[in-house]
Design goal:
Elements lengths: L4 E4 L9 H14 L6 H5 L6 H8 L9 H19 L9 H12 L3 E5 L5 H7 L8 E3 L12 H10 L6 E5 L2 H10 L2 E5 L10 E3 L5 H4 L1
Parallel strand pairs: 1-2, 1-4, 2-3, 4-5, 5-6
Helix pairs in contact: 1-4
Bound molecules: 6-O-phosphono-beta-D-glucopyranose and magnesium ion.
C-alpha cells in the first residue's frame, strides 16, 4: 500500500455543511445589506471563520472595529450551530460510511484535518464521535488552510510522516495546504480541478483505488 493513513477534510468531504454555512453567512450579509451568493460562499471553503468574514465584508462600504467583527463572526456561528442541530446520523452517506470501513479494513489509520472549530460537534451528530484515530481541527491550530498546520498536526497526532498520509480535500485552499506540508492529496468536487491535486477523484469510493 502506498499510504498508511488518510486525513480527511470534514466539511464537503465527509459531510455537506455548505448550505448551513451559506444560510448563516447570508443572514449576516443581509443584516448589513451586503450582496452575498453561493459563488461567494464557495470561496469560504477551507477558510477560517474570521477569514471567511473578511471575504463577506469585501463588499461592505463601512468600517468595522475588530470587536464588531468578532461579534459578527460569533453571531454567524450561533446561526450555524443552530442549523447543525438538524444534522443526524442520516446525513452520513452510505458511500462515505462504507468506504471508511473498507479503508480501515485495509489497515489504514483515519484522521480528520478540518479548519472548523465545530468539527467535533459535527462528528458527534454524524455518529462519528469516536470513530477517527485523530482529529485535528480549528481548535488546535493558529493558521488555517492554505497553511499546512492542520494536516501536519493530524500527522503528528497519528505519529506518521506526511509522505505516508493521503489528504482528501474538496477545497483549493486544502489542496494547497497539503502540498505545502509535503502530503499527497486527492481532490474531490471542485478540488478535483486543482492542478496541485495528486489524484482527482469523482466520488468518495474512488479513494479505495488510490490508497
Ligand atoms: C471549514 C469550512 O471546514 O471550516 C469553512 O470549509 C469554515 O467554510 C471553516 O469557514 C471554519 O468553520 P467554523 O465551524 O469554525 O466556523
Ligand atoms: Mg472542505
Amino acid at each position: 500500500m502506498k499510504y498508511q493513513a488518510v486525513i480527511f477534510d470534514l466539511d464537503g468531504v465527509i459531510c455537506s455543511t455548505d448550505r448551513y454555512h451559506y444560510l448563516a453567512w447570508k443572514k449576516i450579509a443581509d443584516d448589513l445589506h451586503i450582496y452575498f451568493d453561493e459563488k461567494i460562499n464557495n470561496r469560504l471553503r477551507g477558510v477560517s471563520r474570521m477569514e471567511s468574514l473578511e471575504i463577506v465584508l469585501e463588499r461592505y462600504d463601512g468600517n468595522l472595529t475588530e470587536e464588531e467583527k468578532r461579534a459578527l463572526a460569533e453571531k454567524k456561528n450561533q446561526f450555524y450551530v443552530e442549523l447543525l442541530e438538524q444534522m443526524t446520523e442520516k446525513d452520513l452517506s452510505a458511500e462515505v460510511s462504507k468506504t471508511l470501513v473498507e479503508l480501515r479494513e485495509k489497515g489504514l489509520k483515519l484522521a480528520i484535518g478540518s479548519s472548523s472549530k465545530n468539527a467535533k460537534r459535527i462528528l458527534g451528530r454524524l455518529g462519528l464521535g469516536s470513530y477517527f484515530d485523530a482529529v485535528s481541527d480549528g481548535t488546535n491550530i493558529q493558521k488555517s488552510k492554505p497553511e499546512p498546520e492542520v494536516f501536519l498536526k493530524a500527522a503528528e497526532f497519528l505519529q506518521m510522516e506526511p509522505d505516508k498520509c493521503l489528504v482528501v480535500e474538496d477545497a483549493e485552499a486544502g489542496i494547497e495546504a497539503a502540498a505545502r506540508g509535503g502530503f499527497d492529496s486527492a481532490g474531490i468536487g471542485e478540488a478535483a480541478l486543482c492542478e496541485e491535486a495528486s489524484y482527482k477523484i469523482e466520488s468518495f469510493r474512488d479513494l479505495l483505488n488510490v490508497v
